[in-house]
Amino acid sequence: MYLEFRFSKRQVFSKYLDFSSFDRLPLSLPFGVAGLSLEVLASCNGLLLLIKDLRTYVLWNPSTGAFREFLGLHQNMSIGSYCRLYGIAYNATTDTYKIISASQFGNSREETIFTIHDCSTWTTINQTGGFLYYITRNQQAANVNGTPHWLVSHELDSGCVIICYDMLYEKFEEVPKPEWADDVTVLELKAHKGMLCLIHYKRGFADVWVMERYGKQESWTKLYPYVACSSDFGVRPLGVTHGDHVVMEVEQRKLEVYDPRNRVFSMKNSYTYPNSGFGAITYVETLVSPVG
User: Which residues pair with 279 in a beta bridge?
Assistant: First the structure.
C-alpha cells in the first residue's frame, strides 16, 4: 500500500493506493492535526511513525486504526533546522520495536542528537555525540526484515556509507555497498522486493540495484538498467504488480507502472503535492498493535 498526505487550506487529506487495483481511496486520520503540519517518517511491519505539529509523534497502524501519541524525541529543538533520519527497528526474538532517529545541525557530527524510543516501555533515551556519520539529507529508513538502513557519509566530501541499526547488539553497523559506489554521490536507498535497493542517478536515467544476498557485497545486482529519469531522485520503486511490473514514483509527483522488459512507463495516477522526503510512504497491511 502507498500512503500520501496533502494539505489544502485548513485540512489535511490522506489517501492510500492499492497496487493491485490502483484504486485511490480517502483515509481518515483517527487523530487530530493542528497547524497543517504532518510528516510520515518511517514504516515497519504495518506500523507508521508520524510527527504532527512539529512535536507530537504518532505510532499508527492504518489497517486497524489503532495509534498511540507520545513526546520525547528531540525535545526542545527546532527540527526543521536539522537534517534528520528515522526508522523503526524490530527484534523478532523478543517481538519488540524501537524507534531510531538522529538529527544533525549544520555540518557538525558533534551536534548530532541520537534518540532511541522503546515501544514496549515507552521510554526515550536522547544523547548528543557518539554518532560517527554525517547526515546529508532527510531520510526515511529502507527497512529490510525489520532492520532500518540509511545512507550517510564518514566525511562531508567522501562517498556514501550504508548503515543499519542492529537490534541484537543495539548499535549501528555498516553494510557493504557496491564497489562502484565509492565515488558516486547521487544515490538513494530503498527497500524493494524484500531486498536492500540502491538507485544510482545519472544524466537522463537511473540504474536500480538490489542486494540479493544480504550482507554480501558481491551479490549487488543491477535489476533495472537505464530507467528513464529527468532529474536526481526522479524515480523510486515502490512495489510490484501481479504482472511483475514495477510501481514507480516519478518526479516526486506521480505514480507510474514500469515495464522492465520493454523499459516503458504507463501513467496510473498523479498528484500535485510533491513528496520531497516525508510526504508519503509504502507499508504492508498487518494487525500489529502500536500500543504494546
Answer: none
Give dist(CA 98, CA 115) in Å, integer: 10
Residue 174, domain member (yes or no): yes
**Full pLDDT tens readout for the chain, 292 residues:** 667 666 554 444 455 566 666 666 667 778 877 656 788 899 999 999 998 877 889 999 989 999 999 987 766 556 556 788 999 999 999 999 999 999 887 777 777 888 999 999 999 888 887 788 999 888 999 999 999 999 999 987 778 899 999 998 899 999 999 998 877 778 999 999 999 999 999 888 999 999 999 999 999 999 999 898 877 778 888 888 767 788 888 877 777 888 998 888 887 665 545 555 556 788 888 999 998 7
The type of residue at 173 is E
User: Taking the CA atoms of the chain, what radius of gyration do you get in angstroms?
Assistant: 18
What pTM did the predictor assign? 0.89
On whether residue 291 sits in a domain, the answer given is no
Residue 111 included in any domain: yes
Given the C-alpha cell 528513464, which residue does it identify? 228
Long-range contacts of 39-42 (CB under 8 A, 24+ apart): 39/5, 39/278, 39/279, 40/3, 40/5, 40/140, 40/278, 40/279, 40/280, 40/281, 41/86, 41/101, 41/140, 41/278, 42/86, 42/87, 42/88, 42/99, 42/140, 42/141, 42/143, 42/148, 42/281
- By DSSP bridging, strand 113-118 and strand 96-105 are antiparallel
Note down the domain range covering 181: 2-282
User: Is there a contact between 132 and 114 (Cβ–Cβ < 8 Å)?
Assistant: no
How many structural domains comprise the chain?
Answer: 1
> Does residue 12 lie within any of the structural domains?
yes
Instruction: Give the CA diameter of the chain.
Output: 52
